[in-house]
């Protein structure tokens, strides 16, 4: 059986505006298998290290583009976002930085395979990368991020693009041992910048245009 969450109060609104395209099917967390694999090398031991690497890469390649995945599951009749936790400390969306000349879709599939699949060398064709939900900008080599490009900034240092990734009814998530994959309810993320940072805390608002169709197992 299916149950729909977050649908419009106006029952006819969807048919008038093509709202059927904004229904997002999500599956219960119990539909998925979670395992582990060997740890991966983690960069940026400190914030200072990360800034130094950003400056070096910017000097060589210019604007750094990161792509991350918004992946949802259902738990307790509520949509949950899958997040990676690094060293029992900060949280991040699955994904990472593109290689020079790499497309956004190919780069995201590569990062997802590296962080969430058994074999990181596969082509990533089993990941269904959908629309871009939003873009955040880093004007300088600082921690401040903006969900828009300030008009006075001519040479931003980094942009991060969030893509919706739709899950199949079942799959295996194989996560490096030095990372944790957690399912966090959207209600816990909303405006919780202090714990999750502005990008993750803004995801519930980006998803507000969707109705969630829970596919019962």
Task: Furnish the topology, listing elements before pairings.
Layout: E1 2-5, H1 13-17, E2 23-26, E3 33-37, H2 47-61, E4 64-70, E5 72-75, E6 78-86, E7 90-92, E8 95-97, H3 104-116, E9 128-138, E10 158-166, E11 172-176, E12 179-185, H4 186-189, H5 193-201, H6 203-206, E13 211-215
Description:
By secondary structure, the protein is an alpha/beta fold. The chain is 23% helix and 35% strand. The protein is built from six helices and 13 strands. The protein has helices at residues 13-17, 47-61, 104-116, 186-189, 193-201, 203-206; strands spanning 2-5, 23-26, 33-37, 64-70, 72-75, 78-86, 90-92, 95-97, 128-138, 158-166, 172-176, 179-185, 211-215. Strands 8-4-10-9 form a four-stranded mixed sheet. Strands 5, 6, 7 and 12 form a four-stranded antiparallel sheet that branches. Strands 1-13-2 form a three-stranded mixed sheet, with no helix packed on it. Strand 6 and strand 7 (90-92) form a beta hairpin. The longest helix is centred in the N-terminal third of the chain and has 15 residues, at 47-61. The termini are close together. Residues 7-20 have low confidence and may be disordered.
């Amino acid at each position: 059986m299916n149950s729909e969450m977050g649908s419009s109060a106006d029952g006819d609104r969807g048919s008038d505006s093509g709202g059927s395209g904004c229904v997002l099917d999500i599956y219960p967390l119990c539909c998925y298998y979670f395992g582990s694999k060997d740890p991966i090398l983690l960069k940026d031991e400190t914030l200072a290290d990360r800034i130094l690497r950003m400056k070096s890469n910017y000097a060589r390649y210019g604007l750094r583009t990161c792509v991350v995945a918004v992946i949802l599951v259902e738990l307790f009749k509520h949509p949950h976002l899958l997040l990676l936790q690094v060293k029992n400390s900060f949280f991040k969306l699955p994904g990472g930085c593109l290689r020079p000349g790499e497309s956004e879709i190919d780069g995201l599939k590569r990062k997802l395979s590296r962080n969430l699949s058994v074999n990181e060398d596969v082509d990533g064709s089993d990941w269904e990368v959908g629309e871009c939900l939003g873009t955040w900008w880093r004007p300088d080599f600082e921690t401040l991020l903006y969900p828009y490009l300030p008009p006075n900034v001519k040479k931003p240092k980094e942009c991060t693009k969030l893509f919706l990734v739709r899950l199949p009814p079942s799959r295996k998530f194989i996560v490096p041992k030095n990372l944790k994959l957690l399912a966090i309810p959207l209600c816990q993320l909303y405006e919780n910048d202090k714990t999750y940072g502005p990008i993750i805390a803004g995801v519930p608002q980006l998803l507000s245009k969707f109705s969630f169709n829970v596919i019962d197992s």
